[in-house]
């Protein structure tokens, strides 16, 4: 059992005992109750981050297996997908038009970071792709009545700083911007 969870369970177990035995509230008892509340909040935070991680894992697995019904069920209806091309700013209808005819795509998660702000979780992932090599995703999940859903997903190619001028010069030539 995780130390925070063990602490939360231990701290929470003292509450009813104190109430049943009519122990008067002391500074120590109030501090203990405060620690229990903080431990419970940390446990809830950990659970939310675990659930969000499972949503992202399911996203990658369903894309890999072209399980498009499952894939699109992980997004909110008003979600936005930002692809690697500058013109790929798609709502779910546009993303479905692109995705459903394909046999899927595979991105393996190398590293993931999640940060919760109330009912919103932002994330970034370092990904590996057979087709593209190193990639990065970032985005936002929101908590809904149906659980955590993707509100925004952004896929990009990280460019090493020492290559940035060369690559951006190529992009400028491609776009016709001198």
Automatic annotation (TrEMBL):
Q: Which UniProt keywords apply?
A: Signal
**Would the keyword Signal be found if you checked this record's keyword annotation?**
yes
Q: Source taxonomy lineage?
A: Bacteria, Pseudomonadati, Pseudomonadota, Gammaproteobacteria, Alteromonadales
- Entry superkingdom: Bacteria
Q: What is this protein called?
A: Nuclear transport factor 2 family protein
Give the SnoaL-like domain ranges: 55-160
Signal peptide: which range, if any? 1-18
Could you confirm whether the keyword Signal appears in this record? Answer: yes
The record's annotation in Pfam families points to:
SnoaL_3
